[in-house]
């Protein structure tokens, strides 16, 4: 049985995280975060979580 996700919704979708990872190769973390409208720390946390999962 799969339980519903509890808590605050994520700021970035899975697709946005993949786009951010690609952009981060050519831009700074701050620029990528501004593009998606999130804080730099939020962006880095999502990217780190994605890398741990793969």
TrEMBL record:
GO terms for molecular function: DNA binding; DNA strand exchange activity. It comes from the Bacteria. Residues 7-49 form the Resolvase HTH domain. This is Resolvase HTH domain-containing protein. It comes from Aliarcobacter cryaerophilus. The lineage of its organism: Bacteria, Pseudomonadati, Campylobacterota, Epsilonproteobacteria, Campylobacterales.
């Amino acid at each position: 049985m799969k339980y519903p996700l509890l808590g605050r919704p994520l700021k970035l979708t899975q697709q946005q995280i993949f786009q951010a990872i690609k952009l981060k190769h050519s831009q700074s973390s701050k620029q990528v975060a501004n593009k998606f409208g999130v804080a730099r720390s939020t962006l880095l946390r999502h990217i780190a979580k994605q890398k741990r999962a793969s």
